[in-house]
Write a structure and sequence with these properties.
There is one protein chain. The protein is of the alpha/beta class. It folds into two domains: 118 residues, 3-Layer(aba) Sandwich (Rossmann fold), CATH 3.40.50.1860; 112 residues, Rossmann fold. It contains eleven helices and eight strands. Helix 1 packs across helix 11, helix 3 packs parallel to helix 4 and helix 5 packs across helix 11.
Amino acid sequence: MTTSTTTEVIGILGGMGPAATADFYAKLVATTPGSSDQDHLRTVIWSDPTIPDRTEALLGDGPDPTPWLLDGSRVLREAGATVIAIPCNTAHAFVPRIADHVGLPIVHMIGEVARHLTTVSPPIHTAGLLASSGTVRAGLYQEWLDRYGIRLVLPDAASQDREVMTAIHAVKSGTRDGTTTALLTRAAQRLTEQGAQAVIAGCTEIPLGLSADAVDVPLIDPALVLAQALVRRATTESRAG
């Protein structure tokens, strides 16, 4: 696959947060097969950190980010993007509001994770979720995993607030230390104790503070799954062309 054989241009709608956007692009590059610059995908990144907080909006404590997401999608389209990727789990709660107005397909990260879980061996029947309170409240993973018959377990209210959200805010503020890792490790352990056979790092900041070897079951990184889906799409498009 090279830029001469695929017309796909990946549009990354980012800034939610900036470190997660940079991490996602690095994963897209690492996932793309090739041995030269020309083997990689053309990519347009719109990183807009002024997009209002998605969790606050879903909890009723902040403005609706939909207008910003629409504006960013239009920027990407006008820049030549042919498909949009949104490396923010919570932002997917707003995808139904923008999908019909963007004029480009959006590769749905959470849908891709649900499909991915059906392909692994041994099969995953119960998955745990570490995510923002907005993602949990919106039921994004619950909805998609239900479609595939996968049970979802969640942190209790105390763990969600004191461990998961504290760690997410720490990563967003630039803090990635042992304390952050310990918070996420404890939260993940609580999920495995509830029967989780895999833990979904359902906020793009979480893989920045929790390594796979800190969890005793597979840690599923939605940003990596999304990157892999985009590469497959571009490869398929290349072959079809």
